[in-house]
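Input:
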Amino acid sequence: MRLVATTIIALRALRRNKMRSVLTALGMIIGVGAVIAMVSIGNGAKVQVEASIASLGQNIISVFPGTLTTGGARGGWGSASTLTPEDALAIQAEIAGVVAVSPEVRDRQQVLSNGLNWNTSINGVSPDFLSIRDWGLAEGVIFTDLEVRSTAKVAVIGQTVADQLFPGSSPVGQTLRIRNIPFKIIGLLKPKGFNYFGSDQDDTVLIPYTSAMRRVARRTTLSSILIQSTTQNQMPRIQQEITDLLQQRRQGREPDFTVRNQMELAEAATATSRTMTGLLGAIAGVSLIVGGIGIMNIMLVSVTERTREIGIRLAIGAHDHDIRLQFLIEAMVLSLMGGALGILIGVGASQIVSQLNGWPVQVSSASIIVAFVFSGAVGIGFGFYPAHKAAKLDPIEALRFE
Amino acid sequence: MAAPIVKLDNIHKIYASGEVEVHAVRGISLEIQKGEFIAIMGSSGSGKSTLMNTLGCLDRPTRGSYLLDGINVSALNRNELADMRNQKLGFVFQGFNLLSRTSALENVELPMLYAPRRISAAEMRERAMHSLEIVGLAARHDHLPNQLSGGQQQRVAIARALVNRPQLLLADEPTGNLDTKTSVEVMGVFQKLNDAGITIVMVTHELDIAHFCKRNLIVRDGLVVRDELVVNRSIAAEEMKKHLAAETAAKLTVAAP
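Output:
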């Protein structure tokens, strides 16, 4: 093999046909560019989803009421209203590794204040709720455990409720009526925005869960219990212990609750965006293959068009593997050049997309390396057949070719 | 007497094109000594092209032996034949066959890129320039083929054929695409090379071109039917003078009122 000489020959041949070289590489440029841009956008979406899952709070286990079967008719989740504040207290007292527990009592009510009214979700919680959800206060304080025990009429409101009822003024210190019961507003939550499922997390009023049960929802059971564990790898154990504890407390009755952890949710959500990224990558991968076929196409045309040139080379002493190597190098240089340009264009395109649409975009070095290596492989793969065809030409026939 | 450069012994070439066998060469024996300048003539279909391809190691004879510089070509494989062409032979074609969009210098360097032994870039350049000097085109080394006249392109092709210092220069109708004056010019280059000791075999069907050579072969029906030395050989320099004089005379005639 005359590698150095053949490389010189191949580069000279490409230089002779600059326009054709660029056009041939174009398929590769677009293919690789598309892969990089698509995967970057997909990764960006995945990161955003992960962030929005994290905004629900870290290491959270939720207990929901189970189903209730009455006369053969099975109710849906939550139809069994059997989750009690005592269950929540027992979890906090008996299970190791639990940092915070908050019962939740959810209700929807019309709230009034200041001559304005607004329908919002009333959420009865414990003071731990804020640390579990990783949620801060913009103003004021959260209610105390004492206020929970005394079913105090105090409330902490979200930004949306504040905007609707107290436009242009601070809500802290004002009074809010829920079911005509006056609640004193003692705090304002920091805005948290929309959650992964698209609902406005700031459209809420937090009150002590005891007050919610007695005064607002008028029920004796909880909507759910939120539990936060110390670390992620403790979660399966804690989840199991909660299940065991609650089952034990039910003394042999059918399980009427369900314990879920937020990792499952996070996994489902990231799996979705991973599928999306994969899908985008696959579509882009197809364009990469189309780019490769484009190279093969042009190389085949090129072999025919350059039959005479090949004939001259053979006549003055080229071996068949010199010709094969020359065309392979040409194909590989084209596809690698296309790959390199495609990476630049892909990175550029993803930046433009992120600027124009405000999408988060993350360019991964893995996708760059894979795209580059793949484009080289495409060059060899799709360059081989034309190169082989060129190498097998008969010098006499090739020289006679018009 | 030294060993001949070319020794053909009862060469046959049979092409099997479908059902019909074409017997293109029917037993040619030929010796070519160093320093000869031979023209092969013959009508189309006479077998002269096949003979030329065989001499050029582009094709192997069906029967018979061919010794080129003492090496039995009949026994070589495709790549060994390529090395023979690269090292022992130089080719000049009717259609010049230069690489387009490639400078004269790079065209002349081409055979060295395929040399079995690697040649440094500096040496390649030096040898290519030397070859171009021999054909009088060193000043135009950076010109592209389409910037050169037909005669100049053919001289670049000759420079390319010379660059690996071949034993034998083969020219296939080298003046076929050129006008009379340029033909004489190119034949002048060949005569100069032959005077310097290079062995040349060319195919032509123009009798006056064959007259520039030292020995003429006429091929018909796959056999050499005449093999004679040229008497009263044309000398390119003198022919050129005659041609220029005729041209001037023609101009005067036209210019006269």
